[in-house]
Amino acid sequence: MPAASAGVKIEGRHEIDSHDKGVHALNERRILIWDLPTRLFHWLLASLVAAAFVTGLQGGNLMVWHGRIGLLILGLLAFRLAWGVLGSTYARFAEFVRGPGAVLAYIRGRWQGSGHSPLAALSVLALLALLLFQSISGLMSNDDIAFRGPLFAVVSKSTSDWLTGLHRENIWLIGGLVALHICAVVFYTFLRKDDLILPMIHGHKRVSRAAATPATGGGWLAFLAALAVAFAAVWIADGGLLPPPPPPPPPGSIPTW
User: Fold this and answer.
1) Average pLDDT in the 137-157 region?
2) Domains, the chain, with CATH or none
């Protein structure tokens, strides 16, 4: 009798689990989470950071391209900061940047939401901060050979050398955080069966929460405004506010001896 009772309990539990999964599947619906600008930002940033690593570590003639890539990354970051205010629902900082209470609730398995989780939000903020520092410090860096950042003249040589050292050390922090991000994506996608890759490609995700709503806002005017912020940031970073260099002396004005 006890063995039979246990078998009934196990079968009953399986039936309940199957029923719950069926109800869960029936309640699922597909909603927009990540808008197109957010997705483009994500993949462009990933590509440019990889290119910056390669060109920076290789050095030599590739330092010219390293500087150009750094400017593009800074423009992307400026766009993302603006889009975090003007963009659609789940791209806004006000939507996914939460306090310690939400982080604790997530760790305890009590948090429910769409978009970035509280822990993922901390990772996003940390990565944005590190990349911003890397981009800005690179503007004033030098390699004591041929490369100088576009804002090298704004600071003293000793300050530039100090920033150059921090710039070189910071790449390992960025690399570690990127590796952690990739491991987290793999863990949640393949072990927890919570796909984080495809939604960042096509923008949609299947959700079962009744309170989950599709992303809204972030129209063309918001996009153009964020794009203008990005262009302005790149123009300033490339020395747009600096006085033009003096013209070269006319031919023949310098003695040849």
Assistant:
1) 95
2) 31-237 (1.20.950.20)
